[in-house]
Amino acid sequence: MKIVVIGLGSFGMNVAKELYARGHDVLVVDETDDLVQKSQEFSSTSVVADCTEKEVLENLGLSTVETAIVSMGNNLSGSILATMYLKELGVKHIIVKAINDDHKKILEKVGATQVIFPEREMAVKLAQSITTPNVLDYLPLTNAFSIMEIIPPKDFVGKSLSDLDLRKKYQIQIIGIQDTVEDVISMVVSPSRLIKATDRLIILGKQEYLKKIKGLNGP
User: Fold this and answer.
1) Residues with Cβ < 8 Å from 160, sequence gap 6 or more?
2) What CATH number does the domain containing 41 carry?
3) How many domains does the chain have?
4) What are the pLDDT digits (tens) for 98-145?
5) d(CA 150, CA 215)
6) Which comes out higher in pLDDT, residue 139 or 202?
7) Strand order of the sheet with strand 172-179?
8) Which of 64, 86, 104, 162 is the right S-S partner for 98, CB 3.0 to 4.6 Å?
9) Residue 2 pairs with which residues in a beta bridge?
10) Are 80 and 57 in contact, with CB atoms under 8 Å apart?
11) Measuring CA to CA, which residue among 185, 178, 175, 183 is closest to residue 210?
12) CA–CA gap between residue 56 and residue 181 (Å, rounded)
């Protein structure tokens, strides 16, 4: 996949590194020459350019890019302009780092398909890991539903899915189980499957019901 990362602050740098390590065709762009030079070892192409000008983005060939990640620090106007121009160039997936909620609203109006708050999201995950250590990961889908990965509570271990009857008791559904010993993820799980202490459960449900599972003790 061809991806452009605009803005090489700490977040942009790390995202570019991860994407490049995963085999993607990564173009990185920043106004600072030193940062662009540093990024050459973990990018397919690195360019010094001002991405607040539409002509510059056109000349970079961004109309052929599938995904753009915009992370321009505290440059609110710059990120808004870059997002708007990327949208006009036909980039389908535009992910933008926002500074605050008002910034988020503007970004969504000018074309961002996904707006993120990395620091805020990390803070939530950290607080969650401290208060509910059995929850490994958490992905809100809408205001009502979320997906959560958990360590099986003690009461789940040794029982089958049919025994647990989680849909009836907690109004949630297990959509996958990862066997950490075999390193295998099963997305179609038999009701007779016994839960092991080394499993990781991927569950789907309304947030109000997932809270009940969060409160259960892990092994």
Assistant:
1) 191, 192, 193, 194, 195
2) 3.40.50.720
3) 2
4) 989 899 999 999 999 999 988 766 666 656 555 555 555 555 566 677
5) 11
6) 202
7) 135-140, 145-150, 199-206, 172-179, 184-186
8) 104
9) 25
10) no
11) 175
12) 50
Residues 204, 102 within the same domain: no
Tokens 């803070």 belong to: 123
* Domain assignment of residue 69, yes or no: yes
Residue 72's identity, in one-letter code, is M
Note the pLDDT of residue 16: 94
Q: pTM here?
A: 0.62
